[in-house]
Amino acid sequence: MDQLPHCETLLLEKQGPTLFITINRPDVRNAMSLQMVAELSTVFSQIQEDLHIRTVVIRGAGGHFCAGGDIKDMAGARGQKAAEGEADPFYRLNRAFGQMIQQVNESSKVVIAVTEGAVMGGGFGLACVSDIAIAGPSAKFGMPETSLGVIPAQIAPFVVERIGLTQARRLALLGLRIDANEACSLGIVHQTATSNAELEEMLAGALDRVRQCAPIATAETKALLHRVGHEPMSGLLDSAAEKFAEAIRGSEGTEGTMAFMQKRPPAWAESND
């Protein structure tokens, strides 16, 4: 990607093979507006085929990750009436978020969520579709929708995939808010930091590990993992064997094998793209 798209709700910074996305609406605890949804979707679309970007780090400005949906957008949708033959404005609002979160979930990049402060509703869903999630000491997670008289329509399926039906029921049906340690025990996040310094160390360690792994092989592995449970196992394993043969005969497989035999880092581990 030669040029990062212009965004009003996001701060974008490319450092080597990593794209840092900072949700930048601190005055509303980074609540997710329709514009933010559209901008996130645009960014992920543009980087999908860019092999120079291997990792996307998502975090929030001002000490919060994302406090959920934007109340102003909700109020705006309430004031609209669907024209004949058009979908309900609330449907369009909700479904746009679902399409974006599915896009992040299926991205070819390694997505790392650095969660702090409020991680609620849509922000909770965004954390649940990350490949690696790290929580700071201030992080509070929750699905408060039922306590507000609505439902977690677009995030619930991803929460179930993340932590299983039993725990998702408890969180969603009681509208619970939990701390970082409980979020880690449930599998929402993978690591919890006790300080901001430790949080940055954990992030740096995760980014270093991504650099050790071949970018195409990583993307293919992520795609394979997402197919599990959605296809018959025999056919899935047939397809996986074909992908394995392609990988081992490809440039990354050749380089990885040679690097191992020559006891040196592979080329992708030294790349500063």
TrEMBL record:
Instruction: Return the broad EC class.
Output: lyase
InterPro entries linked = ClpP/crotonase-like_dom_sf (IPR029045), Enoyl-CoA_hydra/iso (IPR001753), Enoyl-CoA_hydra_C (IPR014748), Enoyl-CoA_Hydratase/Isomerase (IPR051683)
| Listed name of the protein | Enoyl-CoA hydratase/carnithine racemase
Q: Which family does it belong to?
A: Belongs to the enoyl-CoA hydratase/isomerase family.
Q: What EC designation does it have?
A: 4.2.1.57
Record bears the keyword Lyase:
yes
The source organism is Marinobacter subterrani
Cite the CDD domains for this sequence. crotonase-like
Segments passing through the bilayer: none
